[in-house]
Amino acid sequence: MKRVLIMMLDSFGIGGAEDAEKFGDKGSNTLGHIAERQASLNLPHLESLGLGLAAKESCGELPKHFKNQPHLIGGYAFAREISSGKDTTSGHWEIAGVPVLFDWGLFPDKQNSFPKPLLDRIVAKSGIKGYLGNCHSSGTVILDQLGEEHMKTGLPIFYTSADSVFQIAAHEETFGLNNLYELCEIVRAELEGYNIGRVIARPFIGDKAGEFKRTGNRRDYSVEPPAKTVLQKLIEEKDGTVVSVGKIADIYAHTGISKTVKATGLEELFDKTLEEVKSAGDNTIVFTNFVNFDADFGHRRDVAGYAKGLEYFDRRLPELLQLMQTDDLLIITADHGCDPTWTGSDHTREHIPVLMYGTQVPTKFLGGRDTFADIGQTIAKYLALSPMEYGTPII
Ligand SMILES: O=P(O)(O)O[C@H]1O[C@H](CO)[C@@H](O)[C@H]1O
Ligand SMILES: [Mn+2]
Ligand SMILES: [Mn+2]
């Protein structure tokens, strides 16, 4: 019985990207800088899967608190991104064997980021009376600035970032969750031709600035990948199963997904992952996105929170390893960096770790990989699917 378990620690980069300068990210290093700033960082299980050594190979320096010669139980690599962007969609698609070699559309970082004709069409189609924001922002900062006005006026908050996204924040109770989802669908349709990766619904609750909280009802409306991902191939070629835990299904626009499991927060994401692994049959991929590393810690520039989250994940790893059967392959990886010590609140262009564990994985360095797509190609080979167009198998 063959199964592949992909644990995606969203934004967990390990520095060293050769092209980081192009993104204004030269020297960024999510793991390296978290480790450097923390008095301790206790990640024994990730360390034995090769995390510290992968980071050293990636950027030339062993992160603080890691040993040069850990007791190694898995194979480790780092991977470079060939996709043009450092966004979640590009990272995930490339990992699944479909790099994004075209340029996404982006909204400029200035007041009035969104084109007027687009906004006019959205207003006309949706019946909203107008909008707030219309700029680049951190999603929590903009709630403090405009959340109260939004509640008074009923106008949704439109904002974007360095990623190819159109984000809409609205109060779950006063604006209504379904109204927000409907508005997002209208915006998604109106963005035809703009080449925008995602429209993101950002519902929140609370009564006043400083107390607003975003909820787990976030929803991402993605475009479809431009070619077949390894997830789709598993379903089509082997009648296999792909289980999405967390926001995976949204990121692939629900293509190549057999089952969608919702979960909010690291604990529930981990619990639900274990449940799914317990019941998964042959030819199954269980794919979990731990979004909190990115959304709660990376973008929020919260070093201590990120470190605590990593320690929590590490503490629970043995539960996952214990569930693994003879022919299971575990891959722990990331989709981009989001260095919490970096300026601004955007992602950072970095290498990602590729930590592999399973009976067929040699316990050694498995190389500096030239594309994240090596992961997809490895899975295609492991599950005996037809080869992907990009990537070289790692094992
Ligand atoms: O600041 P928040 O709203 O968390 O937004 C972040 O989340 C978006 C999608 O992952 C990114 O584009 C980034 O802007
Ligand atoms: Mn991401
Ligand atoms: Mn992000």
Task: Give a brief outline of the structure.
The chain has 395 residues and is α/β, with parallel strands linked by helices. Helix content is 36%, strand content 19%. Strand 5, helix 7 and strand 6 (198-205) form a beta-alpha-beta unit.
Order of helices and strands: EHHHEHHEHEEHEEEHEHEHEHHEEEH
Bound molecules: 1-O-phosphono-alpha-D-ribofuranose, manganese (II) ion
What is the first-to-last residue Cα distance?
Answer: 18 Å
Give the fraction of residues assigned to helices. Answer: 25-40%
Q: Count the domains.
A: 2
CATH homologous superfamily designation of the largest domain: Alkaline Phosphatase, subunit A
Taken as a percent bin, the fraction of beta residues is: 15-25%
How are strands sequenced across the largest beta sheet?
A: 10-9-11-1-12-13-2-14
Report Rg. Answer: 20 Å
Report on this model:
- There is one protein chain.
- With 395 residues, the chain is an alpha/beta fold.
- It has 2 domains: 3-102 and 226-382, Alkaline Phosphatase, subunit A; 116-222, 2-Layer Sandwich (Alpha-Beta Plaits).
- It has helices at 30-37, 44-48, 51-59, 88-95, 116-126, 139-153, 172-190, 230-238, 248-251, 265-279, 292-298, 303-323, 373-382; strands at residues 3-9, 75-79, 132-136, 157-160, 165-171, 198-205, 213-214, 219-222, 241-245, 259-261, 284-290, 328-333, 352-357, 365-369.
- An 8-stranded mixed beta sheet has the order 10-9-11-1-12-13-2-14, sandwiched between helices.
- Strand 9, helix 9 (248-251) and strand 10 form a beta-alpha-beta unit.
- Helix 5 crosses helix 7 (172-190) and helix 10 (265-279) runs parallel beside helix 12.
- The model has no long low-confidence stretch (mean pLDDT 98).
- Bound molecules: 1-O-phosphono-alpha-D-ribofuranose (R1P) and manganese (II) ion (2 copies).
- The site of one manganese (II) ion has 6 residues, from loops.
